[in-house]
Amino acid sequence: MIESRVLTQDVFEDLARHARRVEEAPWLEFVHGKLEVKARPDGNRGQIIAWLTRLCLQAYPDRWLHAYQGLRTETDGEGNARPDAVLAPIDTFVGQGEWASPDDVLMVVEVTSYDEDTDRRDRVEKPRAYAETGIPVYLLIDRDSCEVKVHSEPDGVRYEQVVTVPYGKTVTLPDPVGIELDTEPLKNWTR
Question: What is the tens place of the pLDDT at every residue in 89-133?
Fold first, then answer.
């Protein structure tokens, strides 16, 4: 990891832009002053995002679950995260480029990858970054523990409400999402 005193926001964005041009280059994130490498999606992760997209579109045709849209995060906007999916009105990211404003984001979704950084990145650093940014709902689909965690009520530092259910249960994605999520299908997409 590279600390923020070595890596600035501008340098990070330039590095990420160049890395994107290389086939099979890693996806880069800049969370709490640390350069992070996000695992590329596997087939099951992609299926989970497709399933969620269908559910969100059925509930609200004017919203879209944007896959892998980069967001500026943290209170000062000096962070960059690439959630697995971002729920927002359909035209939210038109003209914004690779790193968009989170202002109209209703929910971010992360699906854990099977790598050693998942615990720190998806369960600790990203919830804090998303809460600091004020994103109303953070949905974590944890394929290691076979649980779904719904974080809500950001207070600018953390999410005050976290509801955890095992796969197979139904959980409410609170307002402004407002969807009941039956997690039974997730059993099919976790190894």
Answer: 999 999 998 899 999 999 999 998 877 776 677 788 889 999 999
Residue carrying the six token digits 């005193």: 5
Closest CA to 63 of 109, 105, 100: 105
Single-letter amino acid, residue 144: D
Secondary structure of residue 28 in the 3-state scheme: strand
Q: Which two tokens stand for residue 16?
A: 């990420």
77 φψ region: left (φ > 0), alpha (ψ -120 to 50), beta (else): left
Which CATH number do you get for residue 95? 3.90.1570.10
Model-level pTM? Answer: 0.83
**Is the preceding peptide bond at 41 cis, omega within 30 degrees of 0?**
no
Condensed to tens digits (0 to 9), the pLDDT of residues 37-61 reads 766 667 788 999 999 999 999 999 9
**How many residues are given for the chain?**
191
Q: Which residue shows structure tokens 């854990």?
A: 112
Is 14 inside a domain boundary?
A: no
